[in-house]
Structure of Aldehyde dehydrogenase (NAD+):
Amino acid sequence: MTTQAQQTVTYRNYVNGEWVAASTQQLDASINPANKSEIVGYVQKSGKEDLDRAVQAAKSAQIGWRKLSGATRGDYLYKVADILEKRTDEIAETMTREMGKTLPEAKGETARGVAILRYYAGEGMREIGNVIPSTDSEALMFTTRVPLGVVGVITPWNFPVAIPVWKIAPALIYGNTVVFKPAQETAVTAAKVIQCFAEAGVPAGVVNMVMGDGPVIGHGIAAHPGIDGVTFTGSEQVGKSVGQTALARGAKYQLEMGGKNPVIVLADADLDQAVEATIIGGLRSTGQKCTATSRVIVERAVYEPFKEKLLARVNELKIGDGREKETWMGPCASEKQLRTVLHYIEKGVEEGATLLCGGKQPDGEALKNGFYVEPTVFEHVNSGMTIAQEEIFGPVLALMKVDSLEEAIELANDVEYGLSASIFTKNIGHILAFIQDIDAGLVRINAETAGVELQAPFGGMKQSSSHSREQGRAAIEFFTAVKTVFIKP
Ligand SMILES: NC(=O)C1=CN([C@@H]2O[C@H](COP(=O)(O)OP(=O)(O)OC[C@H]3O[C@@H](n4cnc5c(N)ncnc54)[C@H](OP(=O)(O)O)[C@@H]3O)[C@@H](O)[C@H]2O)C=CC1
Ligand SMILES: O=C(O)CCC(=O)C(=O)O
């Protein structure tokens, strides 16, 4: 008889073009949050020595990679995109098994990874500088851009394909080499993405992946003298420590962290449209997006009809294993995440908010082995409450009633984050005031707070980011350094 351990694949680190076991000889089991007894794969629990090897490989590969033309680097990315595209179904299925989002969402995310790779492949043929008139009429002055060198990429579990790809692809196209540390929670999916780079023939050492714990490998990347820039997405607490560690040794860093994103629904809004966007923005991916809608600020005149429609829709949502066709919302990605969400729900009740629906783990035989939580709606939430201030990262909506647009914007801005915000109204004056006054890097009108587009800058204000932007052409700002050149005959 074969045991599950024998059947389950072990995924290795990818260092200098080879799949290698961690020097520690330690493994972690990556489990399915829809069924905690199912092991998706075993992943490496690496140590500092493994990281050192990866950094050394990335350093050795750097000059050769940098010296290729942008077009040639782009050709590699096109190949990676084609391979990822062919493996969409398999990789999406792994993602669903490993972190719980529904299969259509996982397929959409993988397709987004393909599109991001193609976008940055094309970037290898676009301009990287400007001619600036010199005060010396005989001279030519221009800017050009050079890679940082070796870039460390630290990513979370909520978008295990899209986030690594939107960091690794621009890093590579601008001539950097990469040391990638995926979230241990989703390291199997990450390994499959890196297999696409390996299969595309990206030269040895250009992309390296080291699996392991955040405090060891993630912190190790931030602190490593051989790493020239660090790009991070995850929690505010860890992000800030990554930034401080990188800053202390003079390395460049980029942080994308939390959100507490509001949707404002004004009296003239199309209520059905606003309800749908609140549900999709707040509850898709089980609320585990930094752009997820968390606070729902509704004008008094439409508060009751909006609430009724919202509750009716929330009560229809089918919770279950993301691989099943009829499932609308999967489990939380991990037990830790489930505990966090339940803790916030408890806190909401304790602090006096009214629970309108949800609030607990769902009943049912089919769900008892997974990290499920019901979609939850609170009302009578005020800005001083914990659930109105802290990022929950779960399917929890907080309804808040206001009397005017001014009050709505004031409430919307009354948090430490400023990632995404949306408004539902037909009044152009209100739309313009919102665009002007809201503290958010992503401002969305009559649309959900989530749903970023790969060709546009992405990032937040206040504590949501290091004030930098990712994606689109904005990525060039982090992944390159500018040289100003002055030439005289
Ligand atoms: N902005 C966003 O998109 C995200 C926000 N979050 C927020 O963070 C909360 C906690 O989630 P969690 O997964 O713990 O997020 P973390 O911030 O801990 O994880 C993000 C990444 O950082 C790594 N990491 C952990 N500790 C360190 C460290 N000391 N130094 C460097 N890297 C480190 C993690 O590794 P590993 O996990 O493998 O140990 C992971 O790869 C969520 O509830 C949510 O509020 C979470 C994910 C994404
Ligand atoms: O809304 C999206 O599509 C992206 C969200 C995101 O970047 C995140 O949750 O980390």
Remarks:
- Residues 103-123 form the longest helix (21 residues).
- The mean pLDDT is 97.
- The chain has 16 helices and 21 strands.
